[in-house]
Input
Amino acid sequence: MTQGHTITIEQSGEHVRVVHGGQVLAESDRALVLRETGCPPRYYLPPEDVRLDLLTPSDTHTHCPFKGDASYWSLPDAADLVWAYPEPKPDVAAIKGHLCFYEVEVS
Output
């Protein structure tokens, strides 16, 4: 990490639910919460808790200097709604294979 920029990852201990258009896309009690300087907390869910059958891989890829290269998935009415880091940088290796959504409900 660069000076002043931090990322922490821990078990959230909360129930995380993702709903889009009235349909449950994901529900997990095993989410990881990633806190990064300047960003809202992001919940990374194990793929077993995500309705992967509803998602279509996107051609979008982005690069984060702190986390690595992200791949994205879409719904028919929501482009690039979900992302993951297939090969994250060593400092954030815990999120490997987990999926993250822009909007989640936490309880």
